[in-house]
């Protein structure tokens, strides 16, 4: 058995290292906070964020009527968004061009529109026409927006003078293995 005594290691001076670590962390937080503030200002998120409906900006708390339904401008997950309210009689108070293109820059999440041929898709070799449904804007985790089927078209009240989406110009022959070509 070896009973040799090893020399004691020199004490590690942790105080200067701890101060250096705290200073580095504080500097990193200070630099990280500035871009986050700038992003909130430029993205339209948070308090005072304005909701879009057919490209027109509406302030927080504004209520619009579309398709026989009321929608109120608010925020959801820090982003301007429409929340659906009670059924509303009378004409729409905002234009309703339909879900005819990518909603980014035109509609905020929660907005609904009647579907159009832009929303056509295939299931196998069967064409499903977009005009069969009402579509709602949804936001992905990365912030991109898209239309998602939310209700049958029978739940949309068209104004008496409003144009209704026509049949799709596409045919089932454009559906190949579930893909619209």
Fold and architecture overview:
With 181 residues, the chain is α+β, with helices and mostly antiparallel strands. The chain has one domain. 17% of the residues lie in helices and 30% in strands. It has 1 helix and 12 strands. A hairpin with a 2-residue loop joins strand 11 and strand 12. The longest helix is centred in the N-terminal third of the chain and has 30 residues. The radius of gyration is 27 Å and the shape is globular. It starts with 13 loop residues before the first helix and ends with a strand. 20% of the residues are buried. InterPro entries: TAT_signal. It comes from Nocardia tenerifensis. Keywords: Signal. This is Secreted protein.
Tell me briefly what this model is.
The chain is an alpha+beta fold and about 180 residues long.
Q: Which blocks of ≥5 consecutive residues have pLDDT under 50?
A: 11-45
Mean pLDDT: 82
N-to-C series of helices and strands: HEEEEEEEEEEEE
Tally of contiguous helical segments: 1
Q: What profile does the largest beta sheet have?
A: 3 strands, antiparallel
Tell how many strands the DSSP assignment holds.
12
- Please identify the structural class as seen in this structure: alpha+beta
Could you give the topology of this structure?
Blueprint: H1 14-43, E1 51-53, E2 56-58, E3 63-66, E4 69-76, E5 79-87, E6 112-114, E7 121-123, E8 126-128, E9 133-139, E10 145-152, E11 175-176, E12 179-180
Antiparallel strand pairs: 1-2, 3-4, 4-5, 6-9, 7-8, 9-10, 11-12
